[in-house]
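User: quick one - fold this with L4RZE5RM bound?
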Amino acid sequence: MPRDRRFYESATALAAAGEQLHQRGWVPATSGNFSLRLSPTTAIVTASGRHKGKLGPDDFIAVDQSGTPLTDGKPSAETLLHTQLYARFANIGAVLHCHSVNSTVLSLETQGSELVLTGYEVLKAFSGVDSHNTKVVLPIFDNDQTISRMAAKVDTYLAAKPDCPAYLIRGHGVYCWSDDLDSCLDKLEAVEFLLQCELERRRLHPGQHTGEKQ
Ligand SMILES: CSCCC(=O)C(=O)COP(=O)(O)O
Ligand SMILES: [Zn+2]
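Assistant: Sure. Structure tokens for the protein plus L4RZE5RM:
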């Protein structure tokens, strides 16, 4: 597949996002991966192992829905976690995966498979949420080096709970998706803010882990 104008525009937008996310400390040491939908069945994803704060046009690969590369290079090791989201949600156009301290620590410190967030005004940043009293659940999946196995678990969950705004991988990071890159960045910012609030609460009240389900 030739790298067309859309490919380069998408690469430029994702590189700028990567710079921003790296400055925030959310993609340290080459961690994280980003993608944008190119067509109903293709996406552009970051190449594996690249520093996400210093991305150039050669640091992106076009892939099909099964994660097979359509342009030269090795796509992210976690490509399937992106393509499964594009396959499941026809409306989404962007997926961001980060390794922030907040998502890494909170996913390790939360027992059980769900982090429950409630009481925060910022919850209203998620579509369909109109009150701070609403309960928003972020599922936590156990980390697994076999990405296809993890993708299958994520997909089963999202089939049952399509309104899920984002998910955590234990000791690893966060996945977030949205209609386009700007709204995905906004959503990620909201998720990170909420995770930081939860961590602060737990520091203030050790032993009272409110936001979790056993
Ligand atoms: C250095 S972090 C370990 C791999 C990882 O979790 C990640 O997000 C980056 O992997 P990629 O293949 O997309 O560079
Ligand atoms: Zn990762």
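One thing worth noting: The radius of gyration is 17 Å.
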